[in-house]
Design brief:
Elements: H1 2-14, H2 24-35, H3 40-51, H4 57-64, H5 81-87, H6 89-97, H7 112-120, H8 128-152, H9 159-176, E1 192-193, E2 205-213, E3 219-228, E4 232-242, H10 247-264, E5 269-274, H11 277-285, H12 291-304, E6 309-314, H13 321-330, E7 337-340
Parallel strand pairs: 1-6, 2-5, 5-6
Antiparallel strand pairs: 2-3, 3-4, 4-7
The structure holds zinc ion (ZN).
């Protein structure tokens, strides 16, 4: 009996209107995010929260089996994005003193993406964009405070000071609105080059991306070589992820990760070299062959807008032989590896 009651409950959960990536709602949410007048790093932070790329304890534990997944602030639950940014005791305190309330989204707290979609709906209201921007700044401060505790062992800031810092940072950005004109998405070059003719401009960062997986293993090895055109070595990565058993999907996972790293390094003009014709074709025509790939393609195309220029180029396998080698090396590693050739001025 109990089992069937549970099954009923699960069924009810499933039949909740689901939030799909191609939906109007989600598209508007992304558009709103890119338009917010907030610092670039905060946009990237929210973006990471939305795609599940924020390195919270639960995510690290799930991926590597290392560390303790429990929240260090309250010690009561696993540290997921939802717990840390929405539910943790400490965050609740911050929210009590915030100049904004988020009561309308309280039923969505179990899923950060749904919650943010709901928050983004404020765009239509007077001052809505400002409120969303301030919300993003508050979440960012919560994350920064968490990192201070995590890495510097500095005990948590008071809720009022967290809000104070968020407001200060947000106001600075608001004030700079009139003095700076930011790049609109229309100005961003975002093409997909089927065949790369070698005409990269000097200074463009070229990223050779290759993946290796074994059909009987769950691991995905990713090898990346970044060069500043024409010939300055910047950085190389060997990364290990979980293989999803499909070459195009694995390659999409790799490209998404690489875009993430490129954004963190503040690279603004990049060119991704990939040997996966299938994925590049699907990126170009936005015609994903399945829903898992659709989500990844949406993520990639959304991230593309954060660059001044971001091109995807199909290259022959021979020309990315070194990153291919790195990707098979990555299959055997436990912790991601990085070789950094950047001088300080390159940052
Ligand atoms: Zn907590």
């Amino acid at each position: 009996m109990e089992e069937s009651a549970n099954a009923e409950k699960e069924k009810a959960e499933e039949s909740k209107p689901s939030i799909t990536d191609g939906s109007q709602q989600v598209r508007q949410m992304w558009n709103t995010l890119w338009k917010l007048n907030i610092k670039h790093k905060i946009k990237i932070f929210i973006w990471k929260c939305l795609i599940g790329a924020l390195p919270v304890r639960a995510a690290i534990h799930r991926k590597t089996g290392l560390g303790d997944p429990v929240c260090r602030i309250c010690g009561e639950e696993q540290e997921t994005v939802e717990h840390l940014l929405l539910k943790c005791q400490q965050t609740q305190e911050v929210r009590k003193v915030a100049p904004l309330q988020w009561d309308g989204a309280v039923d969505q707290q179990g899923d950060f993406k749904r919650w943010w979609v709901r928050i983004s709906e404020a765009r239509k209201r007077p001052k809505g964009m400002e409120h969303i921007g301030l919300t993003a700044n508050i979440l960012w401060q919560v994350w920064k405070d968490r990192n201070k505790k995590e890495f510097e062992n500095i005990s948590s800031c008071s809720a009022a000071s967290t809000i104070g810092k968020a407001q200060k940072e947000w106001l600075e950005q608001e004030e700079s609105l009139n003095t700076k004109t930011s790049l609109s998405p229309e100005e961003t070059t975002s093409n997909i080059e089927e065949h790369y003719q070698g005409q990269a401009e000097e200074g463009t960062i070229i990223l050779d991306v290759a993946t290796t997986s074994h059909y009987d293993q769950v691991s995905l090895g990713i090898g990346v070589i970044a060069m500043r055109h024409p010939s300055i070595r910047l950085v190389e990565w060997a990364l290990k992820e979980r293989s999803l058993g499909d070459k195009a999907i694995d390659e999409a996972v790799a490209i998404k990760l690489v875009l993430c790293k490129a954004l963190e390094l503040h690279w603004s003009r990049i060119m991704i070299h990939s040997h996966n014709q299938e994925l590049l074709r699907q990126l170009k025509y936005k015609s994903p062959s399945n829903s898992r790939l659709a989500t990844l393609i949406d993520d990639i195309l959304n991230m593309q807008k954060l660059f001044r220029m971001c091109l995807f180029c199909l290259v022959k396998e021979e020309s990315i032989v070194r990153s291919k080698r790195l990707s098979s090396h990555a299959l055997g590693i436990i912790v991601d590896e990085e070789w950094n050739f950047l001088s300080d001025t390159e940052h």
